[in-house]
Amino acid sequence: MAARPISLRWLVPAISAVFLAAVVTVFGTIAYRSVRSSTLAGAAERLTTVVQVFAQPPAAPQPWIRELQAVALRPEVLEIIRSNGQRVSDSARAQIASLTPDTGQTLATDIRSANGTVLFAIARADTTASGSPTRAIARPQGDSADLDPRLLAWPTRLTQSYPDTVVLSQLYMSGADVVIERGVPIHDDGRLVGHVIQVRKLAPNPDTRRRLSTLIGKDAAIVVGNRDGSVWSDLEKAVSHPPASNEPQTYERDGRRWISATGPSPNGPWTIGIEFPEDIVLAPVEALRRRLFLIGTIIVVLAVLLAERLSRRLTVPLQGLTSAAEELAAGNRTPVVATLRTDEIGRLSRAFDAMAHSIRTSQDTLEYQIGERTQELEAALARLKAAQDELVRQERLATLGHLSGSIAHELRNPLGVMMNAVFYLESVLGDAPPRVREHLTKLRNQVGLSASIITGLLDFTRTGQPQLSTVTVQQLLDEHLARVTVPASISVNRDISPNVPPVRVDAVQVGQILVNLFTNALQAMEGGPGVLTVRARRHGDNVRIEVSDTGPGIPTEERDRIFEPLYTTKARGIGLGLSISRSLARVNDGELTVVAQSDSGATLALDLPAAVGQPAQVAS
How far is Cα of residue 296 from the mean position of the Cα atoms in its chain? Predict the structure, then answer.
């Protein structure tokens, strides 16, 4: 039994759908993996840089060292050493008690002999009547000739004024608490006779948290552990962590994956780790994957609809011709398939009618007419196939161009509806709880971020021809500085040369560049005071506009990479801003570059062509 033939009307759309789906899947997968890999590499590199920042040793002695040294120099404390703990004056007791405040962090303060024996101690709990301490934690007493084995000799020459050796222990567990011991030496006539030792729980440092949030983001975390990996803590509790490594690592803790970089701690015999949640790093990549899937689905659906319409336009007339030919073969010499179409199909149908008319009028010339019309039919079919192939190719190109031009409209409409809904909810929920308003603010910010990403993608794929006009530099800077929100902690310094000429550019495109430079500078100084400096000078035949900030600056090895598409040092974002800005600068016969910088801050220079024959404008 012969297989049922498949109609071209459905075969062409099916083949188009399979082909486009395969192409979109392959290129989407390649793009997703490339962006994911570069994003994780960038995050790991950022964490490594932050670890190096935190690994810088302190420039001055820490306050607790000075406090312990002040007590170690007291003669009353030296008397405790000399009497082997038998004579403890009220003054000495008060001095040692001052080192054990009731804050919940300092658990005990000991006076120990040189061999590690505890001669006197004040713990967080009350002492007994005999003066023997009631321990707030369980830890071994010094019963050997040395200090507690967890104490490491960590000599650090703090300054010329503090040449003593500071004693710090490794981390260890006391119940559910992570504990360290720290102390300073006690000397008697130049001899080491004992130590003042504090026992403390680890606790988070707000300054450290703020500094970490400024450098890498509020979701970053810091952990500290022994260099042998025996105990790790997030400064609040013991946590699991892989052994320290010279390379960034990815591991899972509490059901969440973290990217971690480690390095030696500047404050003790420990290892410090800076971590960031992998899901937050990959959030923009996952959003890009979803957008790629949506775009690919739209492409395939539109291609199938277009292919079905095209195949129907071609196959329906062919079916009419086929029916007429079958009637003619059956003996009916009067089939009519005439059409008003002027293309090859129309010509074919009229030729078929002419052929049938010739058969009716002259039986004697039937064979001749059939041969002649058959040749014409074959030629027409060949032209039809060639036209069909060309039409399919051009329609595919037109579809891709149309899709890239209309994607902003298709996606911005629902984003606009979402933004209007947020605005409406904020207006009618004026007395809503703070948490509700916080989530509305987050939603509005995320909708704005989505709109900016769509705009960035489209701007990267197309850069329109500039609409040139003559505009003053003062006007450009005033107009576009007003478009950005400058925090109260950041001041703006304008330095515009009086002889700077006007420029001949597309004001809208150059405005986009300036807003992007201002925004990047403000983000670099986010979280602290700073100065945004804008300079304008004549630079040969051009006008140079420099935008400087007082942020952390751009490392030398990254200066050539910041203009690459999809390259970013931020935890969020897809890295198209500076790439688009450089493209816009070049279509306006200008250039965007990084200026050599000092130890802090970054400066980007925008060179624009000066307007020929225009007088210099003095800034008002």
Answer: 24
SS3 for 241-297 is CCCCCCCCEEEEECCEEEEEEEEECCCCCEEEEEEEEHHHHCHHHHHHHHHHHHHHH
SS3 of 48-103: HHHHHHHCCCCCCCCHHHHHHHHHHCCHHHHHHHHCCCCCCCHHHHHHHHHCCCCC
Is pLDDT above 70 for 457?
no
Report the candidate in 111, 90, 107 with the shortest Cα–Cα distance to residue 186. Answer: 111
Give the SS3 label for residue 502: coil
Span between the terminal Cα atoms of the chain, in Å: 91
Tokens representing residue 447 in the block: 């909708």
Residues 6+ apart with CB under 8 A from 608: 503, 505, 510, 542, 543, 544, 545, 585, 588, 589, 590
Give the C-alpha separation, 617 to 620, whole Å: 9
324-379: pLDDT as tens digits: 777 766 666 666 565 666 677 777 777 767 776 666 666 555 666 677 778 888 88
pLDDT at 607: 92
Neighbours of 183 (CB within 10 A): 26
What phi, psi does 307 have (nearest 5°)?
Answer: -65, -40
